[in-house]
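Suppose a colleague, Dr. K., hands you the sequence of a protein chain of 392 amino acids and asks what its three-dimensional shape might be. Before reaching for any lab equipment, you can write down a predicted structure in token form. Begin with the sequence itself:
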Amino acid sequence: MIPSILPTYNRAPLNFVKGEGSWLIEADGRRFLDMGAGIAVNCLGHAAPDLVEALTEQAGALWHTSNLYGIPQQQKLADLLVEHTFADTVFFTNSGTECCELAVKMARKYHFEKAAPERVEIITFSGAFHGRSSAGIAAAGSEKMTHGFGPLLPGFVSLDFGDHDAIAAAITDHTAAILVEPVQGEGGIRPLPDVCLKGLRDLCDSHGILLILDEVQCGVGRTGKFFAHEWAGIFPDIMMVAKGIGGGFPLGAVLASEEAASGMTAGSHGSTYGGNPLGCAVGARVVEIVSDPAFLADVNRKAGRLRQGLEGLVASYPSVFESVRGSGLMLGLVCKAANTEVVAAALAQDLLTVGAADNAVRLLPALNIPDTDIDLALARLDAAANQVANNG
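The predicted structure, expressed as tokens, is then:
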């Protein structure tokens, strides 16, 4: 008999009932150190007092009116994002998947309004993850996500990650945009080098096409800048944002330049819940905190501490680990042993990590994780690696 919850997840046998900072508490009272943060979502930890206050205050006033009317909290968050990013305008969603749908529509509508309706193709890359909607799986193109769900939405050209010559060769009169994650998350914490991101920006400019960045996982302070593309000194035309922007509350946003968004007029897109007062009240507080240069400087300091410890583990356990890669507090341990063994061994140490493609283990802690918790996480990873090495 099928369970009451559709069985699409392989869940760990855990049921958390409370969270405190970087800790999750199981129903039986066990405490787990969370180095996954809900897959880069709980950027300020669990039950962050500032976010609890923002949500509680808004919940006592107004939950939902729909986008038939103005929403002051939405306006505040949009203004903050415009102030702190390249963007001139913002559309709010409930998830990263919804952001992908709009980003694709926006890019195609831009060229349609420029009298180039044939420009519908979007170049994407192997290892990408852009959500599980029809557009998202078509954009990623992997067999794992597309198997059994055909026919796929047309208009996507997938290239090998890092094949620079192939990108230029793939641009035709039908190309509308290039869509890329500055750091692939699900793909195994694979950063796109700054020089490559600059090259993509130049390529888009020279061919009159749009650059769409998916910063759903790597954005909102995760890499030590407010958004990851800032390290390369470039700006996209359209950007997908979610996960960390709500600090745990479902919230997403598509940010765009005035030019890129010029085709999106009244009635061209919409959302019943997108930009609701609850989500935007929390999101505004997240942005106020995370965009602070002092906060981001501390993220980078913590990242250095964590990375140094991880490099030590790689050196100590050459049969278990191959390397560390990533940026800021978006780090991956590339494994020689099966990454599933490492995740399981860490779980046995009451440490939560997240697996990824390319045999990697993701470490995505809260951006405000205390140094003591970083050190404890490293100690527990050491114990886990020792277990894997001895079992091997």
